[in-house]
TrEMBL record:
A Pfam family per the record: Oxidored_molyb
Keywords: Membrane, Transmembrane, Transmembrane helix
Spans traversing the lipid bilayer: 12-38, 58-80, 101-120, 132-150, 171-195
Chloroplast recorded as keyword: no
Name of this protein: Oxidoreductase molybdopterin binding domain-containing protein
Gene3D superfamilies: Oxidoreductase, molybdopterin-binding domain (3.90.420.10)
Domain Oxidoreductase molybdopterin-binding, residue spans: 226-353
Amino acid sequence: MKFRSAAHNEKATARIGLWLGIAFLVCFVTGLISHAIQHPPSWFFWPSRPVNFYRITQGLHVISGVAAIPLLLAKLWSVYPKLFERPLVKSLPHALERGSILVLSGAAFFELVTGIFNVAQNYVFTFYFPAAHYAVAWVAVGSILVHIAVKLPVVRRALQRDTSPDLSRRAFLRTTWLASGVAVVATAGVTVPFLRNVSTLAWRSAKGPQGVPVNRTAAAAGVTKDPSWTLEVAGKRFTLDQLSAMPQTTADLPIACVEGWSQSASWTGVPVADVLKAAGVQPGAAVQVHSMEQNGLYRTSTLPGEHTKDPLTLLALRCNGEVLDMDHGYPCRIIAPSRPGVLQTKWVNRLEVL
């Protein structure tokens, strides 16, 4: 069976594969960063400045994943005639090539499909998404490296300058770039503010209490107002009135969610460094933050010393000039620069020095 369409030409396949590889590389590296921030190995360091650093890296993670979807479909369309080649296996390199394509296709589809469901907060799967997504990412990258190693001579030849370009092949490539660009523009507004008015498929916006989206409400967390609430820090207790009487800091900081959306707000509260000093603890010590929430996966978080000494790491009491809404963590929550939203713990009642 002969496939003569320009879409199935090795030059088209190589060019789409190059851009798909770039998209996967960006997605993989930024995904590793996000995973390491949430589950830091002993050697890992993540700075607190610039304040938008995590917002940028995680935004790139989701945007590159979205861009990869039309690229992957175009790549598969370009190479699918090879499924009809006979014999099925011609040599060891040919077997490696076919095996890597099978593993790569399965891993890529898993990553992109589950990733899209995750950003939409539609958990139709029963497995724990972060662990599965992290593990399969390594499988995908490994299969990409094997595939590149096997196909490198073909890729080199295909990427050489074309002295007699095929107009239909160029049209196919331009359609692919356009589809990928439209997908990015239609969704990137979740993390790129100036695109929000044109990103028609953006899944988050400024809608929410006090103009900031909420993933987990107080009702879902089982948290209610407690008139007797106090904050325990290294054995010392602070009432809400005492925290409110301390010098307050106001900072414009983003909530940057692992699902890709982000929203800046004006937060007012007491720097964690000041609270630690008031409790007799030197800022720069790592602390474990505890929430009144009892059963959530993120009811505790670890705040590294780099953040506890940063004057913009706040025990926030107000959002956009108003007392914190219950859904935003009343009576106080952590707001730290360059941190994932899941680690900006809400309904805080204890800071445990590690």
